[in-house]
Amino acid sequence: MSAFPTARSVRTTPEGLLWEPSERWVRGRKGDVTVVDSRHPVLVWEPDLPVPMYAFPREEVREDLLRPAKNPRTGTHTGSRIFYDLEVAGEVMANAAWTFPADDLAGHIAFEWFRRVGRGLDHWYEEEEEIFIHPRDPHKRVDALPSSRHVRVEIDGTVVADSRRPVLLFETGLPVRYYLPREDVRLELLVPTDLSTGCPYKGTAEYWSWRGDADVPANLVWSYPDPLPAVAAVTGLIAFYNEAVDITVDGRRLERPVTPFSRTLSTS
Asked: What number of helices (H) and strands (E) belong to the chain?
């Protein structure tokens, strides 16, 4: 019998972890060094994290690059038993890897993603496509659909955008985002910022802030100049945080939603 699970179902551990085997070929690198090369990864969801991570069979990990952590990060990753420091080309990355306490995941090692937490492996690939921030959730959809709805956006009572050719982006667990052509947005009322963020589903975003004196969050407008192929329809279009502006669709003003971004916006 194979040592690797093959069932395509989500399982639960007594510790509250959810996990599911994946059939994707996953590789993780630090610089030019491949630390993980796995054809049997497992997706793991921790109770307090909304996104999954990967864990890998030990035999598909460069364990020769791992050292028992000098200062283990207690209280993280759902009671993890063992933490490892990663040493590559003389550089030591503290607590870059760990094991989960669940018996179901015995023999597996997980890694931090540098672009998510600032330490760990800095390049990740599923098959031949590089992925960023965290693994994509197989139970989550992102669809970008062209529309003819009438969308108007106001900031502090000023109409900033008015369009009848939006692209609506539907993403599981988030409000609909309305991406508008630049010609339909008053960009002179916005100022570019230095912020850049990555999304495993959409790509790398650039941002603008409101130029006026209104008490609104910074970086409340964004665009993907070169999005991932799955959402190519939003290329170069402008979107606004529903949480911080007033959006009217086909004559009906939408309620401002409360999302995980609400707290980020309030402190930006």
From this structure: 2, 23
Contact 198, 204 (CB under 8 A): yes
Q: Are 176 and 201 in contact (CB under 8 A)?
A: no
Classify domain 11-131 at the CATH class level: mainly beta
Write the single-letter amino acid at 195: L
Q: In terms of pTM, does the model score above 0.70?
A: yes
Same fold, 11-131 and 142-267: yes
* Residue range 97-139, pLDDT digits in tens: 999 988 889 899 999 998 777 778 999 999 999 998 899 999 9
Residues in the chain: 268
**Dihedral, CA of residue 124, residue 130, residue 136 and residue 142, to nearest 10:** 160
User: What's the rounded Cα separation, in Å, for the pair 179 and 193?
Assistant: 19
DSSP one-letter code for 170: E
Convert the pLDDT of each residue in 40-70 to its tens digit: 999 999 987 778 999 999 999 999 999 999 9
